[in-house]
Input
Amino acid sequence: MHQKRLLLILPFLLSGCREKSNLKKIPLFSFAGSVQETRNGEKGFLLSLTDAELKNRVQRKASFPLFVYSQGCGTCDLFSYTIQGYLKSAKTVFPFRTLSNYLLFDSSASFSESVILFYSEGKIVSTVSNLPEAYSSFEAFSKRRNKYTIVSSATVLTGYENRLGLTYSSDYPTYRIKTDGKENMDFTNRKNKDLCIVNSSQADFSSFNTELSYFYFLDNDSFHQKSQEVLSTLGLDDSSVSGKNSIWIRFGEDGKASILN
Amino acid sequence: MKKIVSLLLLSAFFLCFACHKETNPDDGKVYLHKREGINATISLDSRDQLDSVALYDDARIIVTNTGCHFCKQAKEYLDPYIEKTGTVIYEVDYRNVYKDAYEATNPESGASNISPSLIGLYPNRAKYGTPFYRFYANGKLQNTQASTAISEEFFQDRFHSYTKLTNYYQRNDFTYDASRDTNVLDNTEDYSFSENLDLLGFGTNRLDTLLEDNKKNKLVLFTWRRCNDCKNYRQKVLYPFLEKNSTQTIYFYETDGYRRFKRNEQEEYQNKGLKIWSDFCQKYHLSDYPRIDINGNLAGYTPTRVNFKSGGTYTLSVFANETDLVINDDRTLSYKTAFYKELTSIKSKTKLRESDQEGSSNYLKALKELLGLVQDKDVELNKEYLESCIKKDFY
Output
């Protein structure tokens, strides 16, 4: 009798143990700057976010992972190898902030060690601490990362400034987004692809279609001029998108560009 | 019934093991360092300073409160004890620092998203009142002592049951603040721009004074509290050595201020930090095992020991910090550069497969093996170095 009862409640118990996963996955964008050649060979690079950039992402309900690095000896832990392996393999944008600077943004956070935060639509949905244990290898990192993130087919075209020269630790080299005219604007295989030019400090991140083929992030100061330049290169008239913070472009079957918004 | 009893006994047995506290070698006591010329506590005036000590140092902290009669009374006995023994006792103000730390790290106070290493570090003080003492080692709270009983015997007996005083002397600068009857950590005037950065100072006056007298050998360890290699060195080489040679004096300089400064996010501070760290390394010879920083400055590593010998010469020894990981022809891993050349001939037992990438599980397995083998040999070589320094002193 007892066994029967147990059998009856077992499915409920088991379903209660299952994790609710109605979470929208966090997109990771491909980016050429995430792997660069250095004098010590090829290295994976992290995107160093400024305070304003982080604030803007959260306010605009962006979804992104964030590696918060507690100042310490990078060579003394094995996590630097894990993240290096991941970056070299996945070549995606992975934002970075030092702990002391992260605390300027969120003074209520109580971290003393390096953590990875997963932001989904502007909110932290997971905090992973004890990184060398939690992500004991590059495979473990990819597997657990996949729980919250999805590697998007979108590629970031924006230029970057190598921060290796002034890095916090050569084990965690970083870059910053920069619009210096050295962006890779190669649309050779653009047939049936999309391009989104974004004013990253104004745009509403939550509305982005992350399966877009190309993203071109620009800061507030350069958005107007740079977006005009791209439109002109593609032979497009910018009058219809004046005042907009994101411009959506479709390349048709014949490779010809047209503005969607 | 017997089964239940044995199960309970078995569980209790495992629980006992799980509760075992990790302290320092031998007797489980917290190893404490000293400072010369000290006769009062050293004040930790911010949450950052408290965290730095509690998480990374082996230390004893007294928590006091403004207007607390027993605190004032305790300090009257504490000062002569500090002067007599040279022991370092950190002082934390309950209202200005400890309370914040408690509230930020305890779920019961409503704090969330707390890093596991901080949970339990600063328990509620309600049941103790002030003053109370906290003993920290290996980033954990090891013991608490709360008593209003005050006498010299109290400090001798009660403190010594939790701690072990070693002849390990810190040479970072500090200054006495008579208005508070406490010492404050140095913030050198030359670097006044860093005042708001909450760093341990950059002052080297006390270190330089020590080194000016070159009639006697002085062994100085340059260390960084946030570096696991330094922690390993302390536990595997230094403490066993001090245990065996209890009359031997070893000095140390904590480089936390320099190391954090050069990691500042602001470019201007980073450049300054890199430059002053480079100057420091060259002045005290850490750069003899060189590291070229990213701006091309010549720098060095920690932990490094320099034996400043009578007559102005010196010898050097560096623990860990092997670099240039290479995959050998036989697919094993080894280091190309190490302070002790013999460490470069050590190979991992595991061989990498062609498909293994940096950070893959097989790669990390080989790396862990290599690190273990290299560290064992490194411990041996560094112990030999310390022993040789004493022998040379003797002759």
